[in-house]
Amino acid sequence: MTHAGVDIDSLTPAEAAEWYASCGIPVFPCRPRGKEPLVEGGFHAATTDEARIREWWRRWPEANIGVPTGAASGWLVVDIDPRNGGDETLGAWLSKYGRWPATCEATTGGGGRHILFRHVAGLRCGPLAPGVDLKTDGGYVVVAPSIHPSGGRYMWDGMDGADSLGRLGEPPGWLLRLAREKRPQTVSSAAPGRKIGAGRRNVELTSIAGVLRSRGAGEAELCELLRRINGTLCDPPLRPDEIERIAQSVSRYKPRAENERPDSQRVFDRLDEGRYRMQIPGIASELEIDLLRREDGNLVGELSARCFLPGNRGVDGLLSVGDFNVSSVRARSERAKLIASRANTKTEEVDWPGIIEDFCQRVLLAEREGNPALVLADVPLPEPDDEWQVHGFPLLKHHPTILFGDGGCAKSYLALWFLGVLAKQGVHTLYCDWELDEREHRRRLELLGLADRREILYLRCSNPLTVECERIRRIAREYGCQYIVLDSVLLACDGPAESAEVAGRYFRALRRIGTGSLSIAHIAKGEGGDQKPFGSAFWHNSARATFNIKRADSVGGENIAEVAIYQRKANLKAFRPPIAYSLRFEDERTVIRRGDIADIPELAGNLTVPQRMAALLRRGPMTTAELAERLEVNDSSIRVAMTRKPGIFMRLPDGRVGLVAPQGGSDAKQ
Q: Is the per-residue pLDDT at 283 higher than 90?
């Protein structure tokens, strides 16, 4: 498929997606005739990998094509919506500032336009003026030849069509000035209202959408209204895909019938393990229970009640939150009275005792039933690309990994660097810290040359992970974090690390958070302490991969650290060969590079004979005698290694020993 002269409109969605990828533009699938991402991670999952793209469009052949805006694609997009005054705004701009610079433009299929410029760092997604949005890091657009929900087709404009993507113009200075100034409001500023902060945005916008849906608003109307409210009242605004997800979810509810009570429609959902929610759209209210557990035979959890009707006596809509005995009839009655008084609703319109009773019965039934059994053959296979490779170190996308070692091995420094490498790929991450503080990690970020990477979030933790996990999960969900680091296990425990129960609770908390993770741990003292993390054997047994890190004695001064990482457990992948890194600490920067473990005698001594042979042979074939002399072993040890590892070593025609594969394979564990 050629890059130039392509007629995008004549291609199937799959062919078009591959064409974008071949041009270096990452893509991901969206719902056919819609904008909602179909893959986990949404626009964060966008890729240029052709195998992955073919797999996606084999599964969803009619899927629309999404492209992340910002650094991932190099696009800064001005999104013009004529239904909300975009044409008028554009006309005023053209009259005041003159024509746009020559660049790529598209029609959206719904009557709008996308004007593309080269990406400029430091800008934020969100409303720019009435009917005009700016899309950069944290946003995405749907592209040709996708189909708009209205049935219209997205199309690249102008004579050059999609070819103009290779000639994006620089955004004009006046546009950048507008983008960097305080955003104007898109609804009447005369209506006073509090800002909706992080942590409440999803809940409040969902409740607002519920009221609108109960009165008959459709998905497109909900999306547009929520977008405007989000840009005006949410600080910071939610990502565009989150707004679309809320609108799509709420539009599943049936509108309220004309003579129906406001509280009659109740939507019950299982949000997660031990977490349930009931929404009552007609009264802009919801109940949510979390942290469910059994105490003396009773089902107990933390119950939150929210209401966003005018006149309620809650704090930012929160009427009540506290432990609640779901099994107790008396507790239900007392909590209903409290919520009714705080909501300030009329008894004849809102039956809070009935709502609480209904919610509790559904929770009890759901807990008795548990998760349904699945036909294993119907379960989708794991994605082939289920890990990130960070300069040789594998980070599992959906499972827990432990990196353990003695103090001073640069574990935390390397973990932050790993997140920095992911950030450069557009992956949002979270560093959960029990040991240091934000200033020290900010200094390290600066020294690593990553100070501009806003994809890395930092969270100072003081309570055990079993307590912090709900906060971590909420933040990860709010900001789209796909990977977390927990530093360190010992301080994040809710009891002694030697306890199997403590390890079990730690990993259950990680499972609730729901992302891939790297937990930093220490080693046990004594012989064999470098084989498993400190504490119960269940730390090693419950992680899907564990790695031990060792540091060589200082070489060339205290400003250089040489470390090696050895894999000790691999449940999901083959064992990896040991990895070496060199860290050079300078006054104004820290440089981390991958090295060759064979060049560090102190660390190379921890390798098996096959591993040491592979390291030497990567530089070129050698005779058996040369290998034995370099490794200080008998010739017979070399012959045994060759016999046991025929997939790695081979005898060359001239009698020397060489490698079957240049990298020596990951099979050289034993």
A: no
Q: Which residues contact 186 (CB under 8 A, 6 or more apart)?
A: 84, 127, 130, 228, 231, 232
- Find the angle CA(600)-CA(649)-CA(615) to the nearest 5 degrees: 10
pLDDT digits (tens, 9 = 90+) for 292-323: 888 888 999 889 998 877 777 887 778 888 89
Helix axes of 13-22 and 50-59: crossing angle, nearest 10 degrees: 160
pLDDT recorded at residue 347: 81
Question: Is the pLDDT assigned to residue 615 strictly greater than 80?
Answer: no
User: 389-603 — its CATH code?
Assistant: 3.40.50.300
Determine the Cα–Cα distance for residues 441 and 520; give it in Å rounded to an integer: 15
Q: Is 272 exposed, middle or buried (0-12, 13-18, 19+ CB in 10 A)?
A: middle
| Residue 483: Cβ-neighbour burial (10 angstroms; 0-12, 13-18, 19+) | buried
Contacts of 97 (CB under 8 A, 6+ apart): 172, 174
- Evaluate whether 204 touches 194 at the Cβ level (below 8 Å): no
What's the rounded Cα separation, in Å, for the pair 375 and 354? Answer: 37
- Domain 608-659 in CATH 3.40.50.1110? The answer is no
Q: How far apart are CA 635 and CA 625, in angstroms?
A: 6
The pTM of the full predicted model, rounded to 2 decimals, is: 0.56
* Torsion (CA) 150, 152, 158, 161 in degrees, nearest 10: 110
Tokens linked to 539: 């730390």
**Which residues lie below 8 Å from residue 668, measured CB to CB, with a gap of 6+?**
577, 608, 610, 611, 613, 614, 645, 648
- CA gap 259, 276 in Å, rounded: 29
CB 649 within 8 A of CB 641: yes
Could you tell me how many helices (H) and strands (E) the chain has, helices first?
Answer: 19, 29
Q: Where are the domains of the chain?
A: 8-180, 196-250, 267-369, 389-603, 608-659
Mean of all residue pLDDT scores within the chain: 85
Q: How many CB atoms lie within 10 A of CB 288?
A: 20
The rounded distance, in Å, linking the Cα atoms of 243 and 247 is 6
Before 499, cis peptide (omega within 30)? no
Residue 125 has pLDDT above 60, yes or no: yes
Q: Give the chain's radius of gyration (CA, Å).
A: 29
Q: Where are the alpha helices (DSSP H) in 486-533?
A: 489-492, 500-513
Structure tokens at 437: 């503080």
Q: Which of 221, 363, 254, 373 is nearest to 300 (CA)?
A: 363
End-to-end CA distance of the chain: 45
pLDDT tens-digit readout, 187-197: 333 334 456 77
CA distance 361 to 327: 9
Per residue in 589-610, pLDDT (tens digit) is 999 998 877 777 677 666 778 8
